[in-house]
Amino acid sequence: METFGRGCLYLIIGAAILLGLAFITQSHIQIPFFIFIPLVALAFFMAKKKTEKKREDEW
């Protein structure tokens, strides 16, 4: 559950960065699915890695 929450947080932060970038440049940002899906997978992979490291440090 912790990994899912952290992954969602990373996705929200990424969306906020893209929204800010679009606001600053006053443009539309379109991300195709073949780029978006690996980015989502990468966010959850990073979250899993960080959660595993945290659990390893607790032992």
Model description:
The protein is mainly α. The chain has one domain (2-53). 85% of the residues lie in helices and 0% in strands. Helix 1 packs across helix 2 (33-58). It is elongated. The two termini are 19 Å apart. The chain crosses the membrane at residues 7-25, 31-47. Keywords: Membrane, Transmembrane, Transmembrane helix.
- Range of strand content: under 5%
**Cα-to-Cα separation, first versus last residue:** 19 Å
DSSP strand count? 0
Radius of gyration: 14 Å
Going by helix content, strand content and strand pairing, the class is mainly alpha
For the biggest sheet, the summary is: none
Keywords: Membrane, Transmembrane, Transmembrane helix
Transmembrane segments: 7-25, 31-47
Summary?
The chain is built from two helices and no strands.
Write the layout of secondary structure elements.
Layout: H1 2-25, H2 33-58
Helix pairs in contact: 1-2
List keywords for this structure.
membrane, mainly alpha, 59 residues, transmembrane, transmembrane helix, 85% helix, 2 helices
